[in-house]
Hints:
Helix content is 25%, strand content 17%. The N and C termini lie far apart (50 Å). It is α+β, with helices and mostly antiparallel strands. The chain contains 6 helices and 7 strands; from the N terminus they run αββαβαβααβαββ. The model has no long low-confidence stretch (mean pLDDT 96). The chain has a 5-stranded antiparallel beta sheet with strand order 3-7-6-5-4, sandwiched between helices. A two-stranded antiparallel sheet has the order 1-2. Strand 1 and strand 2 form a beta hairpin.
Amino acid sequence: MPPLLTQFALSPSNLTTLAPCMDPDGGEDEEAEWRNNLLSARTVVYQSGVIARQGDSVHHAVDPEELALCGKLAGEAASIMKGASVGMGSESSASFTEFFVAANADPPRPTRIDEEFVRRAFGGTIFPPATLTVEPLKEMGVWWSEVLADGDGQPDAYFAPWRALMAWFARQPFVDSAFVRIGDYGALLALERASYPEGTDSPGCVFPRLAVGLTRAGSLAGIFGHVVQT
């Protein structure tokens, strides 16, 4: 086994992927992490894909072969969806981009993608009251109903990239895979203001949407996009 990678610089390109969901446009408290954004304004991303809040201590012990695998898988997934819009009821056009979070080689190694795991993978950057759904990468569930609604009246070719993506995930050596929806505008509007973190002016409106697989080593790899809801 090659030596573990223990030092990673911050990655502006990886941060760019998350940036639309971080933008605290408006709001009075400029020091607040979630003025009206879904991902903390303090979010940073390392070259390993690891997500954290600026100033938090981060432990790195990544197998370079696992890091290469993550990049390969994320690149393949993104290439399938190249040119396809996220859609899903969004009020703005956006595309999917590569996304991965390389796991450390130390145990434990998770075996399934669930809400707790996703929040941990995002390093505490997700707006705390935001709802989060994790569903199978199959033609079922809330996520697929949103794809169907967005493609209503479209030719069958509209769904071809989505179906190719699901087929690709099914062929990979993932121990689990899922479509993850982070945040829902209606649910956030229903929140009492008392549940907002300090400094939050209003709920955000740019919500992450991910299709990801879990490697045997515990890394996440796939694609990241976002929807806008107002």
